[in-house]
Amino acid sequence: MVDTFMGYSRKDGQVGVRNQIAIIPSVFCSAKVAERIAYQVPGSVYFRHPVGCSQVGEDLEVTAKTLIAIGKNPNFAGVVVVGLGCERFSPYELAEGIAPSQKMLETVVIQKEGDSLAAIQKGSKIAREMQQIASRQGREEFPVSELMIGLNCGGSDMTSGLIANPALGYASDKLVDQGGSSILSEITELIGTEDILARRAIDDRIADSIWETINLTEEKLQRQSQNSSNKERTHLISKGNYDGGLSSVVEKSLGSMKKSGNAPFSGVIRYGHQPSRKGLFLLDSPGHDGEVSTGQVAAGAQMILFPTGRGTPTGFPGVPVIKITGNNRTYEKMKENIDINAGEVLVGKKTLEQMGEEIYQEIVEVASGKQVKAEILGHDEQFCITRLP
């Protein structure tokens, strides 16, 4: 029997776990106007970013694809695109890319409206009307096969790879076994595990893609190290990881991959793209937490699962981020930020399987409307589009 959750139906066939209005600037110049619109309309979220102009080639293409994909994420019932009017990535191009999702969609252009105040007034009116319509939509029952989760982590310590990540891997496997989807990323933190991950690919083509993705990232890091003025530092794990008990990049990588459990890999996703099937996927992205979460939400993830040994308060606009720690001390210090204390495994109160089941049940409850602590506290720092050199 397949488990179910209560979500929001979308016209394009997707299912959202939240029902908010997204205010998306097409360029950094319109970010403050987008923010002011969102502040005036409860139930809306905005996406501040520093890009959208003076970009060329693939760098601009990644920005465009990512912003479009964020707008198409099923957690948003409607989107207000806010543009300046002279940017390289046109607000009309952004809206045109979001349009196939068939959700409520309007465009406000500052130069067309006359000034910031006029644009804020118009955008707020549109967003309020969208929110009124969205508020009348109720949740419906769906199988968990409609869920896609992102697997991310930050501030790792020695308990991450031992407890929190393997427990999350159990929950991810259970979701994938029932037809759902899960996304592993942070390629810089998977270097050295490519042979293990490739063996889990469903065919040779995907296995080769896993090898290529991780090898290219390693080659890029080697080039950057050669050009660095501090070559020693480029080869070390972060100070926070080291202080938390991790000995090396190898240990961190072996622990990081455990978030994906044991399910087979169904494909590799490029940044800003969406998978064409369900299952477990590897997303090609850097190790920066915000860039990872943004890529996963752009791929269609309705929530992020985030183990953290050292602790972090961060969240994502319109997408719940479930925080998990395997460290009892971290949980006691950051109770208002962390949702699940997997440290109970460390002290023998629960088994790893029991904790994995608890995480899975939390996924279902959050998908059905339970707010996570990052949402309650208004944390939205993780939106960050990757840049290409």
Describe this protein's structure:
The chain is of the alpha/beta class and 389 residues long. The protein folds into two domains: 20-135, 3-Layer(aba) Sandwich (Rossmann fold); 144-376. It has 16 helices and 14 strands. The strands form three sheets. The protein has a seven-stranded parallel β-sheet, with helices on both faces. Helix 1 links the parallel strand 3 and strand 4 (44-46). Mean pLDDT is 92; it is low at 231-235.
Key structural traits:
single chain, Rossmann fold, 389 residues, four-stranded parallel sheet, 42% helix, globular, alpha/beta
The biggest beta sheet is recorded as: 7 strands, parallel
**How confident overall, as mean pLDDT?**
92
Structural domain tally: 2
Rg over CA atoms: 21 Å
Q: What's the helical proportion of residues?
A: 40-55%
Summarize the structure.
This protein is of the alpha/beta class and 389 residues long. The protein is 42% helix and 16% strand. Strands 10-11-9-8-12-13-14 form a 7-stranded parallel β-sheet, sandwiched between helices.
Task: Describe the secondary-structure layout.
Layout: E1 4-9, E2 15-16, E3 20-25, H1 31-40, E4 44-46, H2 57-72, E5 76-83, H3 91-98, E6 104-109, H4 110-113, H5 116-135, E7 140-143, E8 148-151, H6 158-177, E9 181-184, H7 194-198, H8 204-226, H9 231-234, H10 239-243, H11 249-256, E10 265-269, E11 280-283, H12 289-299, E12 303-307, E13 321-325, H13 328-333, E14 340-341, H14 343-346, H15 352-367, H16 373-376
Parallel strand pairs: 3-4, 3-5, 5-6, 8-9, 8-12, 9-11, 10-11, 12-13, 13-14
Antiparallel strand pairs: 1-2, 1-7
Helix pairs in contact: 1-5, 2-3, 2-12, 6-11, 6-15
